[in-house]
Fold these 2 entries.
Entry 1:
Amino acid sequence: MNVRRRSSAAALAAIAVIGAAAAPAVAADPSPSSSPSKTAPSGLYGTTDPQYDGVWRQSLALLAQDTAGVIPSSTAVKWLTDQQCANGAFAPFRADPAAACDAKTPVDTNNTAAAVQALWAVGGHGDVIEEALGWLKSVQNKDGGWGYVPGTPSDANSTSVVIGALTATETDPEKVVKDGKSPYDALLTFALPCAKDKGAGAFAFQPDKDGKLLPNADATAAGVLGALGEGLVADAADKADAASCTDADKPTREGAAANAAAYLTATLAKDGHLVSALGGSADQPDYGNTADAVVALAAQGGADKAAEPLAWLEKNAAKWAAESGPAAYAQLIFAAHATGTDPRDFGGTDLVAKLNATGPAPQGVAAKDTASANADEKSDEKDDDSPFGVWWFVGVCLVFGIGIGFLLSNRNKKQQP
């Protein structure tokens, strides 16, 4: 590595940055909303009752922070790891983590798979991840899939989120088999053929009581990502032709994903968002599933395919996220990431700062990427008149007490389970 010479002023500026990085800090944003929440001293993000969604929302929050380049709070990460049972499974919430899990502890595949994705992203928890994956494999159904609760029939959503956990940890779902069936085999059984008058190409959650497959937008968004082998966080694919539903004698994962994307595109065309109806009430915008659909469409066909629902979210989702909390902010950050949108200016809202404010302050922000760092070096080199390199100067100051250990420490981003 070439050491570039810089001015003493640049060196002093570098030292100031190091000093700031050595202390826990919120992601770089001066707004009051970036300050940590005073209502979550335990490390949990959000203030609502965590009985049903504690692990889920904590996992999404940590995963979204990592996606946005934020180093999560160690307290928040510990809260999540403390929720694991001795057998490797996670329940939505354990009020007393010191108490052993028993047969009444409501462990499930969705929370476990989400926790795996989050802990893999933040790094340093290989044992926790290995035990969680071992439990997931132990409760795999004979059709190759998973239900929400062990022992229940497989469904598209649960199977997809477990596929995400497997691929996130560099485990090939094709090789995770039960009775010769892989998760992909199970997932494809929920895909509707294009010949259907309604719901052509969609995924069903499960067959209904009569064995029929009914289209489900939530399951379809999840199914697209599962069929593609993607997790909760997905990058945009290269641009693809307009999605259209095409039947094949033997459906492939890619074909099923394309068909499902075509269904989502058609469903979103009317209003730019998905809808939901609760208890017979009038249809309401479904912000969360719309955000999931944005990720799915971008992952399957490129960011352009998700432009319309993304624009609708940027215009309308801020109030929903503020009312719904950490998981909602995380879903919007995932949508921003998948489409190359700045999550710190999402329709005028800094999603990252808002998320950070719902729990303990993050440790800081990740280092700038190499390209940006190199550009800065070239700029500084132009007015350099120092006989020594900046890092020599910084190193001398570090010896006098700044603390080189923290500077050089770096989390293990991809620790193998």
Entry 2:
Amino acid sequence: MINQVQWQSELINKYNVSGPRYTSYPTALQLESGANTQTLVEALKHCDTSALSLYIHIPFCHQLCYYCGCNKVVTRHQHKADLYLDYLEKEMAILSAYCQSFDVQQLHLGGGTPTFLNTEQMSRLMARLEQHFTLNNDAERSIEVDPRDLALERIDELYTLGFNRISFGVQDFNDDVQNAVNRPQCADEVEALVRRAKEVGFKSVNVDMIYGLPLQTPESFALSIERLIDIGPDRVSVFNYAHLPSRFAAQRKIKDADLPSADAKLTMFKQTLERMIKADYQFIGMDHFAKKDDELAIAQREGHLHRNFQGYTLGGNLPLLGLGVSAISQINRHIIQNEKELKHYYQALEHNQLSACKEITLSEEDELRAAVIKQLICHFELDMNAFSARYDFDFKQHFAGELKQLQGFVDDGMLEVSDNHIRVTSKGVLFIRIICMCFDEYMQSQINQQRFSRVI
């Protein structure tokens, strides 16, 4: 585990390129058409564990945020969620026949905006989940929340429904910045919601922030981070805004002239990094922080942190079953994605079929490289002898070419490679995504690289 992070301007100028976030390996870009109901059913039938992680995608948002690149449906019509729940229940009913032996140890609602669902709709969803799946009494139950227009009492409702982890998409506490991305919100009300979540007993409260948004300055963002630290969430994610208007139409509404310069963005992240560490948050990796007594930080220190499509997590290698439009499942050697468009998702279920449409089956080589990348991205060090013994191969011989590629990082003081260990130094921890790319067989095309965000 890394205890220190060194900011080296010359290394940032040299290595700040685009790269995957490695919420999976291979990444979702490698998925190919051809999946169907049987693909997912067979994966569940041959699953080698009785534990399960469940992800539910709620695609709706009341308002378009100009920066957003998520798969979403912007609408003010609440009845559309009722229709969506009808189809989600069809999907649950089909899957439940193959999930009776599973014990759900993790449940995550993402989107879109899960709290687009009103009180009655959310209660309906949770009741159906309880009906079709066996949710462990001690399961992690997490939900993503848009704090705008969310009544304070809904925090209590979510806790009563069984959620014990909550994540707020705040992005910035500055009104001018929020208005520039079509996301007006009252900072005082947002703060009250986060504080209420801590008061009622959520085990972990996360806040997402974004740097690089229009009208942000290093000075204004520093004030937002100070307010964040004063509120004191258990976990914080500080994402780099990737301006890709050619891919995301909504981003074309952002004026280029309003965006902070590349130097200003770097200053924002540097200041944030220094301030979060000074406030005694543990740097988990990339853009994630956690209080040192949070389960995420403890898991990293104890060597059992995991990473999947929800990011850093405690779930170990639990198979992940995704429900809803565009949801991704990862079960044993299979990564399978549902249809991305609502009409196609609905059409499949109308014919009593699942909407699985894209997939990749991992080879033994994929699994090996996925394990290497996960170890490095979660713990910043790797025991080559332990890997050789666990997977019955010669690590140094198998990855001889990759170890040669790492030499440049060694020369720049970002890595230490001994006879048995690879260790990321405090200079290299910010570049873990690039270091992991050395073990990525699919990372051959510069075209693909440009579809990812920059690492800082």
